[in-house]
Amino acid sequence: MPSLLSSETGDRVLHNLEQFYTQKDDLDTKLLQKYELEFRVQTADSGASEQTLAVLQLLVAISLSNLANAACFETLQTVVSYISFAETHKFFSEEHILAFLRSERLLFVVNVLEARCLRAADASAIEFVDRHAVIPFLVSKLLGDTENAAWRSQVCSFVSRFCAVYPREARPEEWEMKNLQVLNNSVQFEYYCALLEVLAGLELRPDWLQSLFEINWQPIVDADERTQEEQIVAATQLCCSSLSKVPFSWLHGLVSILFQIYEPIYMLPEFDIIYRMSMMDLIAALANGPEEAFEVCKSFVERNPAVLGPELFVRCPLSLIDHPKAYFDENFANKSLISSNDILFACLVHLIDDETFFELMTQKILTTETLRNLPQDRLFVVLKQLSLYDYSTQYLLLEMPYIVSTYIVPVDRGMVNPELWSLKNDLVSEIIMNRSVSLGVWEEDLKKCLYEMQNGRKLRNVVPAVDVANLTM
Q: Among 281, 366, 367, 426, which is most buried by a count of CB atoms within 10 Å?
């Protein structure tokens, strides 16, 4: 805990607060700001000084009186955040804290609890949250109000982070989320989805959680355009984040509703960029998700092949495409690694991830002549991708000796770009450590290269035998 020792500034603040509380002088806000700054930067480890506790006592008294103002609350929040919750109770009762929690001072309490529970792991603060069911209260607050107030995102963030660290004390079984009418209000709906994400990530989930994922999502389809747009973003985020946490059967209904919205309009010129980005996020998540999710995604793409544009193509497994050769001939046969723009280059590199597409590439696109004419940044991206699979590594070692001998085996001390150095180190390491193909005539040279790159010096005339399993990564 930061040092809360006495200071000259603290004496001046104490005097000014006493004068202000007795209405003998105005509050010196600049002095308070200076005190806060000094207070925050102290780093020694000790408890609160008597001076600090005296300042705290006056700040609490002012905050509970009709003299309360923003400057006092800000300083009070800073001081309380660095003092144990138990010490705070000497001047600031639990009843006062709970009253603030239910007032416009909500964020003050949340900020203090965040500091004490999450940054300081203060047992008394954590016990307070548990004993007074603070998290269930905040959940009800988030889902009860319909106004898009500024406090919402900060409160939701605190709830999420607290649950991740103290799931039992968050009392998720007491969250009042059942039978809520949130689908007609985009603000409530956004936080409903965010809280479902939190619950989905818990190891011990409430028994009723599945029913919340399987509600009737149809009102999203029937909502007005603005409400629907905001709901789609929240619902898509919920699907994407929950795919790895809950059974896909829980999400199937919501995914179907989202595709029902997307399918008739995704090709229209006025298709909103937010819709487009959300749709791509959803398809990419499903395509890389469990088997059931993949099949639903594949069915949608088969009905709507135009949806698989370059930006989405690079994010999806190539098994999504049923007829690789036809797809390759239509989209990539006449493309070049050299002249392509960045997104097309990324698509061509992605083709290496599938053996069938890779073999099609070797006929014309992926040749020694092409690689030797690539700029180094693109060359090593391609080589790194080739090193990730047995079939492409074998092709590289057997069919591209010039590339191996010129760009991979020698350690280029003139390579000053750290990203290129890292790419080369990674690709050589991949070939030696993770591939199950014979390295043939390249084995000794590859080991020398990796040893030199990882040890930062050249080997002498006699190279000791290198045990691959003991190479430092």
A: 366
**Tens digits of residue pLDDT in 321-340:** 999 999 999 999 999 999 99
Alpha-carbon distances of 225 from 30, 272, 281, rounded to whole Å? 48, 11, 20
Strand partners, 4: 48
**Phi, psi (rounded to 5 degrees) for 4:** -120, 50
Within a 10 A sphere around the Cβ of 222, how many other Cβ atoms? 10
pTM metric for this prediction: 0.83
Is the confidence at residue 426, as pLDDT, over 70?
Answer: yes
For residues 55 and 61, the answer to whether their CB atoms sit within 8 Å is no
| CA–CA separation, 427 and 431 (whole Å) | 6
Q: How many helices (H) and strands (E) does the chain have?
A: 27, 0
User: CB-based contacts of 220: which residues, under 8 Å, 6+ apart?
Assistant: 183, 228, 231, 232, 235, 257, 258, 261
Q: Check residue 383 and give its pLDDT.
A: 98
Question: Which position has the token pair 């000053």?
Answer: 416
Q: Which of 334, 409, 337 is nearest to 366 (CA)?
A: 337
C-alpha to C-alpha distances, 264 to 55, 252, 302, nearest whole angstrom: 64, 19, 14
Q: How far apart are the first and last CA of the chain?
A: 37
The candidate with the shortest Cα–Cα distance to 200, out of 218, 217, 175, 182, is 175
Question: What single-letter DSSP state applies at residue 118?
Answer: I
- DSSP-derived 3-state class of residue 48: strand
Is residue 204 within 8 A of residue 210, CB to CB? The reply is no
Contact 393, 440 (CB under 8 A): no
- Could you report the per-residue pLDDT of 240-281, keeping only the tens digit for each? 999 999 999 999 999 999 999 998 888 777 677 878 899 999
Q: Whose structure tokens read 């790895």?
A: 244
Strand, helix or coil for residue 22:
coil
**How far apart are the C-alpha atoms of 10 and 148, rounded to whole Å?**
39
Residues 6+ apart with CB under 8 A from 395: 358, 362, 386
